[in-house]
Amino acid sequence: MTARKFMALAAAPLASALLVTCPSPAAAQAESDTSGARRTRIALGPQIVPSFPGADSVGIRPLVDVARARGDEPFAFEAPDESFGFSVARKGAWQFGPALGFEGQRSRDNTNGLLPKVGFTFELGGFVQYELTSNVRLRTEVRQGIGGHKGLIGTVGADYVIRDADRWLFSVGPRVTGVNGRYSRAYFGIDPATAMTASLPAFRANGGLQAVGMAAGAIRQFNDSWGIYSYAKYDRLVADPGRSPVVRAFGKRDQLSGGVALTYTFGGS
């Protein structure tokens, strides 16, 4: 099954479910009781993601999410592609906090033994987000690679969110990804010495824009306990990554990911 078909199957049931009678966005912002006991929602399922940046193959990884809310307050919105993190400071519509991500390795086998390995990378950094309106959220992340690519990666995104409390939620919005030269050269560059042995043109990949794309997510609650969550994301490699001989020889510019998970909610009064 192709990545595109997988995401279509994951998103289609939720999309149709969300098209049933929908109250106005204002209804989702109704006053809530935040004095009750804590509720917890756990999501667990599979997701497919590019094996490494620029890959033409995908890997299967677990899709896990944990959210908490008090009383009948709706669970806070989280974009499907944001890194693990939590708010440590709030000021009006602003929130700040740490962000933790990771990137899978590119082995030599992925490039027929011609290019150097890029090891598994932990990415540690932070985020800033701003609620422009009750339905629009802006967020940016910057993360530094520890090991692996050892580069710097940043993302900027906007999400339009409609919801009916926790009964259903749908979000969609654009994404822009930028990287520094070290990150870009790790995945998309070919130094002169490697070019001679790999019979590929030397290519110095500079930092800057890496990809532009879109992400969409949906949650549908079946009853007080059980629900379903899915997401789909598309990125298009641009600038130096899009022009890289590495991508032309061993990958593709179109990067797809998506997943589906069962959710379980417990706790509360």
Overview of the structural elements:
Strands 1, 2, 3, 4, 5, 6, 7, 8, 9, 10, 11 and 12 form a twelve-stranded antiparallel beta sheet that branches. With 269 residues, the chain is an alpha+beta fold. It has helices spanning 3-18, 181-188, 192-198, 239-243, 245-250, and strands spanning 38-50, 58-70, 84-85, 89-91, 94-103, 121-131, 136-146, 152-164, 168-179, 208-221, 226-237, 254-267.
Q: Main β-sheet: number of strands, strand sense, barrel status?
A: 12 strands, antiparallel
Low-confidence region ranges: 1-34
What structural category arises from helix and sheet content? alpha+beta
What Rg, in angstroms, do the CA atoms define? 20 Å
General shape: elongated
Strand content: over 45%
User: What is the rounded distance between the termini?
Assistant: 43 Å
Give the overall pLDDT as a whole number: 88
- Give the topology string: H per helix, E per strand: HEEEEEEEEEHHEEHHE
Indicate the percent of residues in helices: 10-25%
Count of individual beta strands: 12
Helical segment count: 5
What are the defining features of this structure?
alpha+beta; 48% strand; twelve-stranded antiparallel sheet; 269 residues; 5 helices; 12 strands
Short description:
With 269 residues, the protein is of the alpha+beta class. The chain has helices spanning 3-18, 181-188, 192-198, 239-243, 245-250, and strands at 38-50, 58-70, 84-85, 89-91, 94-103, 121-131, 136-146, 152-164, 168-179, 208-221, 226-237, 254-267. Strands 1, 2, 3, 4, 5, 6, 7, 8, 9, 10, 11 and 12 form a twelve-stranded antiparallel beta sheet that branches.
